[in-house]
Prior knowledge:
Helix content is 47%, strand content 18%. It is built from 14 helices and nine strands. The longest helix has 35 residues, at 245-279. The N and C termini lie far apart (78 Å). Residues 5-19 have low confidence and may be disordered. InterPro entries: DctP_fam, TRAP_DctP_sf. This is Putative exported protein.
Amino acid sequence: MHKTLAFTAALLASTIAARAETVINVAHVLGDTSSYQVTAERLAELVAERSNGEMKIEIFGSSALGGELRLAQGLRSGTVDIAFVSTASLEGIIPETKIFALPYLFDSKQSTYDILASDLGTELLATFANYDIIGLGWGAIYERSMPSMRPVETLADLDGMKIRTIQSTGYVAAYEALGMQPTPLAYGELFLALEAGIVDAAELAPDQTVGDGFAQAIGHYALTRVHMLPAPLLGAPALMNRLTDAETEILMGAIPEALQAGIDAHNAATDAALETMRANGIVVTEPDLAPFREAARTAWPVIVAELPGGEETLAKWQAAIAE
Protein backbone atom coordinates (compact mmCIF):
# COMPACT_ATOMS: atom_id res chain seq x y z
CA MET A 1 0.00 0.00 0.00
CA HIS A 2 2.79 2.36 0.96
CA LYS A 3 4.59 1.59 -2.30
CA THR A 4 1.42 2.32 -4.22
CA LEU A 5 0.95 5.61 -2.44
CA ALA A 6 4.59 6.52 -3.02
CA PHE A 7 4.29 5.69 -6.73
CA THR A 8 1.09 7.73 -7.02
CA ALA A 9 2.71 10.69 -5.27
CA ALA A 10 5.77 10.50 -7.53
CA LEU A 11 3.57 10.29 -10.63
CA LEU A 12 1.52 13.28 -9.48
CA ALA A 13 4.67 15.26 -8.76
CA SER A 14 6.10 14.52 -12.21
CA THR A 15 2.79 15.49 -13.83
CA ILE A 16 2.71 18.78 -11.97
CA ALA A 17 6.32 19.43 -12.94
CA ALA A 18 5.56 18.69 -16.56
CA ARG A 19 2.59 21.02 -16.49
CA ALA A 20 4.75 23.71 -14.86
CA GLU A 21 7.16 23.73 -17.80
CA THR A 22 6.58 26.79 -19.96
CA VAL A 23 6.51 25.83 -23.63
CA ILE A 24 6.86 28.51 -26.30
CA ASN A 25 6.48 27.83 -30.01
CA VAL A 26 8.60 29.69 -32.56
CA ALA A 27 7.56 29.50 -36.21
CA HIS A 28 8.99 30.56 -39.56
CA VAL A 29 8.71 29.73 -43.25
CA LEU A 30 12.35 29.14 -44.24
CA GLY A 31 14.56 26.05 -44.22
CA ASP A 32 16.89 24.46 -41.70
CA THR A 33 19.95 26.50 -42.74
CA SER A 34 18.24 29.89 -42.66
CA SER A 35 18.91 32.76 -40.27
CA TYR A 36 15.43 32.18 -38.89
CA GLN A 37 16.30 28.64 -37.86
CA VAL A 38 19.69 29.60 -36.45
CA THR A 39 18.09 32.34 -34.36
CA ALA A 40 15.35 30.02 -33.09
CA GLU A 41 17.82 27.29 -32.15
CA ARG A 42 20.10 29.72 -30.31
CA LEU A 43 17.10 31.23 -28.53
CA ALA A 44 15.99 27.76 -27.44
CA GLU A 45 19.47 27.02 -26.05
CA LEU A 46 19.74 30.28 -24.14
CA VAL A 47 16.23 30.14 -22.70
CA ALA A 48 16.63 26.53 -21.55
CA GLU A 49 19.99 27.30 -19.98
CA ARG A 50 18.90 30.47 -18.20
CA SER A 51 15.65 28.95 -16.92
CA ASN A 52 17.32 25.72 -15.75
CA GLY A 53 15.16 23.82 -18.20
CA GLU A 54 11.87 25.23 -16.93
CA MET A 55 11.26 27.03 -20.22
CA LYS A 56 11.23 25.13 -23.50
CA ILE A 57 11.09 26.46 -27.05
CA GLU A 58 9.66 24.27 -29.80
CA ILE A 59 10.62 25.27 -33.34
CA PHE A 60 8.35 24.93 -36.36
CA GLY A 61 10.22 25.85 -39.54
CA SER A 62 9.58 25.40 -43.26
CA SER A 63 6.00 26.72 -42.99
CA ALA A 64 4.97 23.92 -40.61
CA LEU A 65 2.46 26.29 -38.99
CA GLY A 66 1.55 28.01 -42.27
CA GLY A 67 2.78 30.82 -44.47
CA GLU A 68 3.73 34.25 -43.22
CA LEU A 69 0.23 35.71 -43.44
CA ARG A 70 -1.10 32.85 -41.34
CA LEU A 71 1.73 33.27 -38.84
CA ALA A 72 0.93 36.97 -38.49
CA GLN A 73 -2.71 36.18 -37.82
CA GLY A 74 -1.64 33.45 -35.39
CA LEU A 75 0.37 35.99 -33.42
CA ARG A 76 -2.67 38.21 -33.13
CA SER A 77 -4.96 35.37 -32.08
CA GLY A 78 -2.44 33.76 -29.76
CA THR A 79 -2.11 30.41 -31.55
CA VAL A 80 1.49 31.31 -32.48
CA ASP A 81 3.79 32.54 -29.72
CA ILE A 82 6.79 33.87 -31.63
CA ALA A 83 7.47 34.08 -35.36
CA PHE A 84 9.64 35.60 -38.01
CA VAL A 85 7.45 37.44 -40.52
CA SER A 86 9.04 39.59 -43.20
CA THR A 87 7.95 43.20 -43.44
CA ALA A 88 6.50 42.58 -46.91
CA SER A 89 4.01 40.10 -45.45
CA LEU A 90 3.11 42.57 -42.69
CA GLU A 91 2.09 45.39 -45.03
CA GLY A 92 -1.60 44.52 -44.94
CA ILE A 93 -1.61 44.50 -41.13
CA ILE A 94 1.02 47.11 -40.25
CA PRO A 95 0.99 49.73 -43.03
CA GLU A 96 4.06 51.47 -41.60
CA THR A 97 6.15 48.56 -42.92
CA LYS A 98 5.39 49.65 -46.48
CA ILE A 99 8.44 51.89 -46.21
CA PHE A 100 10.51 48.81 -47.03
CA ALA A 101 8.59 48.22 -50.26
CA LEU A 102 10.29 51.26 -51.81
CA PRO A 103 12.85 49.90 -54.28
CA TYR A 104 16.40 51.18 -53.79
CA LEU A 105 15.49 53.14 -50.65
CA PHE A 106 18.73 51.99 -48.99
CA ASP A 107 22.25 52.24 -50.35
CA SER A 108 23.38 48.94 -48.87
CA LYS A 109 22.54 46.16 -46.47
CA GLN A 110 24.82 47.69 -43.83
CA SER A 111 23.07 51.06 -44.02
CA THR A 112 19.78 49.22 -43.49
CA TYR A 113 21.15 47.53 -40.36
CA ASP A 114 22.32 50.93 -39.11
CA ILE A 115 18.88 52.49 -39.57
CA LEU A 116 17.09 49.61 -37.85
CA ALA A 117 19.50 49.88 -34.91
CA SER A 118 18.74 53.60 -34.59
CA ASP A 119 15.89 55.33 -32.78
CA LEU A 120 13.90 55.24 -36.04
CA GLY A 121 14.08 51.46 -36.17
CA THR A 122 13.13 51.18 -32.50
CA GLU A 123 10.18 53.53 -32.99
CA LEU A 124 8.90 51.51 -35.94
CA LEU A 125 9.14 48.26 -34.00
CA ALA A 126 7.19 49.83 -31.14
CA THR A 127 4.29 50.74 -33.46
CA PHE A 128 3.62 47.03 -34.05
CA ALA A 129 1.89 46.89 -30.65
CA ASN A 130 -0.86 49.10 -32.10
CA TYR A 131 -1.80 46.14 -34.32
CA ASP A 132 -1.75 43.42 -31.61
CA ILE A 133 1.73 42.20 -32.46
CA ILE A 134 4.82 42.69 -30.29
CA GLY A 135 8.05 43.67 -32.03
CA LEU A 136 10.80 41.73 -30.27
CA GLY A 137 13.74 42.75 -32.44
CA TRP A 138 15.18 43.05 -35.94
CA GLY A 139 16.79 39.98 -37.47
CA ALA A 140 18.74 39.48 -40.67
CA ILE A 141 18.17 41.69 -43.69
CA TYR A 142 17.58 39.81 -46.93
CA GLU A 143 19.05 41.67 -49.91
CA ARG A 144 16.66 40.73 -52.70
CA SER A 145 18.34 40.08 -56.01
CA MET A 146 17.29 38.04 -59.02
CA PRO A 147 17.71 34.29 -59.67
CA SER A 148 16.55 33.68 -63.24
CA MET A 149 16.35 31.30 -66.16
CA ARG A 150 18.09 33.71 -68.54
CA PRO A 151 20.83 36.34 -68.14
CA VAL A 152 20.20 39.80 -66.70
CA GLU A 153 22.99 42.21 -67.53
CA THR A 154 21.07 45.37 -68.42
CA LEU A 155 17.69 46.91 -67.67
CA ALA A 156 16.53 45.96 -71.17
CA ASP A 157 17.00 42.27 -70.32
CA LEU A 158 14.09 42.54 -67.86
CA ASP A 159 11.57 43.61 -70.45
CA GLY A 160 8.59 41.25 -70.39
CA MET A 161 10.17 38.73 -68.02
CA LYS A 162 7.76 37.04 -65.61
CA ILE A 163 9.00 37.29 -62.03
CA ARG A 164 7.62 35.74 -58.87
CA THR A 165 7.32 38.41 -56.24
CA ILE A 166 6.30 38.56 -52.61
CA GLN A 167 2.57 39.21 -52.28
CA SER A 168 3.02 42.95 -51.76
CA THR A 169 1.51 45.75 -53.80
CA GLY A 170 4.76 47.68 -53.40
CA TYR A 171 6.88 44.85 -54.75
CA VAL A 172 4.51 44.37 -57.68
CA ALA A 173 4.66 48.09 -58.49
CA ALA A 174 8.47 48.06 -58.28
CA TYR A 175 8.90 45.22 -60.74
CA GLU A 176 6.29 46.64 -63.09
CA ALA A 177 8.36 49.83 -63.13
CA LEU A 178 11.36 47.71 -64.12
CA GLY A 179 9.43 46.43 -67.16
CA MET A 180 8.68 42.98 -65.78
CA GLN A 181 5.48 40.98 -65.30
CA PRO A 182 5.18 40.41 -61.53
CA THR A 183 3.42 37.22 -60.47
CA PRO A 184 2.71 36.93 -56.74
CA LEU A 185 3.01 33.29 -55.66
CA ALA A 186 3.31 31.52 -52.34
CA TYR A 187 6.91 30.69 -51.46
CA GLY A 188 6.15 26.97 -51.48
CA GLU A 189 5.01 27.16 -55.13
CA LEU A 190 8.12 28.89 -56.47
CA PHE A 191 10.36 25.91 -57.28
CA LEU A 192 7.78 24.22 -59.48
CA ALA A 193 6.90 27.55 -61.08
CA LEU A 194 10.54 28.02 -62.12
CA GLU A 195 10.87 24.44 -63.34
CA ALA A 196 7.64 24.63 -65.35
CA GLY A 197 8.44 28.02 -66.85
CA ILE A 198 5.45 29.69 -65.20
CA VAL A 199 7.90 32.39 -64.13
CA ASP A 200 11.28 33.32 -65.59
CA ALA A 201 12.76 34.73 -62.41
CA ALA A 202 12.30 35.39 -58.71
CA GLU A 203 13.56 37.93 -56.18
CA LEU A 204 15.50 36.18 -53.44
CA ALA A 205 18.62 36.60 -51.35
CA PRO A 206 21.59 34.40 -52.31
CA ASP A 207 21.39 32.17 -49.23
CA GLN A 208 17.67 31.54 -49.80
CA THR A 209 18.36 30.68 -53.43
CA VAL A 210 20.87 27.99 -52.47
CA GLY A 211 19.61 26.94 -49.04
CA ASP A 212 16.04 26.32 -50.16
CA GLY A 213 17.02 24.52 -53.36
CA PHE A 214 16.15 27.11 -56.00
CA ALA A 215 19.69 27.02 -57.39
CA GLN A 216 18.81 23.64 -58.89
CA ALA A 217 16.24 25.28 -61.18
CA ILE A 218 18.10 28.37 -62.45
CA GLY A 219 21.04 29.23 -64.67
CA HIS A 220 21.63 32.86 -63.70
CA TYR A 221 21.72 35.15 -60.68
CA ALA A 222 21.85 38.93 -61.07
CA LEU A 223 22.84 41.12 -58.13
CA THR A 224 20.08 43.67 -58.68
CA ARG A 225 19.64 44.49 -54.96
CA VAL A 226 16.17 45.96 -55.51
CA HIS A 227 14.88 45.64 -51.94
CA MET A 228 16.39 45.28 -48.48
CA LEU A 229 13.87 43.05 -46.71
CA PRO A 230 14.05 43.07 -42.89
CA ALA A 231 12.97 40.05 -40.87
CA PRO A 232 11.56 41.18 -37.53
CA LEU A 233 11.10 38.68 -34.71
CA LEU A 234 7.56 39.07 -33.43
CA GLY A 235 5.66 37.97 -30.35
CA ALA A 236 2.03 37.39 -29.45
CA PRO A 237 0.49 39.63 -26.78
CA ALA A 238 -1.10 36.47 -25.38
CA LEU A 239 2.37 34.99 -24.82
CA MET A 240 3.63 38.07 -23.01
CA ASN A 241 0.52 38.04 -20.81
CA ARG A 242 1.03 34.44 -19.70
CA LEU A 243 4.75 34.66 -18.95
CA THR A 244 5.81 35.55 -15.43
CA ASP A 245 8.06 38.57 -14.91
CA ALA A 246 11.04 36.25 -14.46
CA GLU A 247 10.23 34.32 -17.64
CA THR A 248 9.80 37.54 -19.59
CA GLU A 249 13.18 38.74 -18.39
CA ILE A 250 14.82 35.48 -19.48
CA LEU A 251 13.19 35.53 -22.91
CA MET A 252 13.83 39.21 -23.65
CA GLY A 253 17.39 38.95 -22.37
CA ALA A 254 18.15 36.08 -24.73
CA ILE A 255 16.66 37.61 -27.88
CA PRO A 256 19.48 40.06 -28.84
CA GLU A 257 22.13 37.33 -28.71
CA ALA A 258 19.94 34.91 -30.65
CA LEU A 259 19.20 37.51 -33.33
CA GLN A 260 22.89 38.31 -33.71
CA ALA A 261 23.64 34.62 -34.17
CA GLY A 262 21.12 34.55 -37.00
CA ILE A 263 22.54 37.69 -38.61
CA ASP A 264 26.09 36.30 -38.46
CA ALA A 265 24.92 33.03 -40.00
CA HIS A 266 23.02 34.88 -42.73
CA ASN A 267 26.03 37.00 -43.67
CA ALA A 268 28.29 33.95 -43.86
CA ALA A 269 25.69 32.00 -45.83
CA THR A 270 25.27 34.86 -48.32
CA ASP A 271 28.97 34.81 -49.24
CA ALA A 272 29.04 31.01 -49.35
CA ALA A 273 25.92 30.86 -51.54
CA LEU A 274 27.43 33.09 -54.22
CA GLU A 275 30.53 30.88 -54.26
CA THR A 276 28.36 27.77 -54.49
CA MET A 277 26.36 29.17 -57.38
CA ARG A 278 29.48 30.05 -59.33
CA ALA A 279 31.02 26.65 -58.60
CA ASN A 280 27.87 24.94 -59.91
CA GLY A 281 27.91 26.83 -63.18
CA ILE A 282 25.33 29.48 -62.39
CA VAL A 283 26.33 32.76 -64.03
CA VAL A 284 26.40 35.54 -61.42
CA THR A 285 26.24 39.04 -62.89
CA GLU A 286 26.57 42.51 -61.36
CA PRO A 287 24.70 44.94 -63.63
CA ASP A 288 25.17 48.69 -63.55
CA LEU A 289 22.33 49.56 -61.18
CA ALA A 290 21.92 53.24 -62.08
CA PRO A 291 19.30 52.55 -64.80
CA PHE A 292 17.56 50.05 -62.50
CA ARG A 293 17.29 52.65 -59.72
CA GLU A 294 15.98 55.31 -62.07
CA ALA A 295 13.29 53.04 -63.51
CA ALA A 296 12.25 51.46 -60.19
CA ARG A 297 11.85 54.79 -58.42
CA THR A 298 9.00 55.71 -60.75
CA ALA A 299 6.98 53.32 -58.56
CA TRP A 300 7.62 55.37 -55.41
CA PRO A 301 4.52 57.64 -55.65
CA VAL A 302 2.22 54.59 -55.74
CA ILE A 303 3.86 53.11 -52.65
CA VAL A 304 4.19 56.38 -50.72
CA ALA A 305 0.48 57.07 -51.27
CA GLU A 306 -0.30 53.99 -49.14
CA LEU A 307 2.32 54.77 -46.45
CA PRO A 308 1.03 56.34 -43.21
CA GLY A 309 2.33 59.90 -43.17
CA GLY A 310 3.13 59.70 -46.88
CA GLU A 311 5.80 62.13 -48.06
CA GLU A 312 6.53 63.29 -44.51
CA THR A 313 7.38 59.75 -43.42
CA LEU A 314 9.51 59.22 -46.51
CA ALA A 315 11.41 62.45 -45.89
CA LYS A 316 12.08 61.36 -42.30
CA TRP A 317 13.58 58.06 -43.45
CA GLN A 318 15.59 59.65 -46.24
CA ALA A 319 17.07 62.16 -43.80
CA ALA A 320 18.08 59.37 -41.42
CA ILE A 321 19.61 57.34 -44.24
CA ALA A 322 21.60 60.36 -45.43
CA GLU A 323 23.17 60.98 -42.00
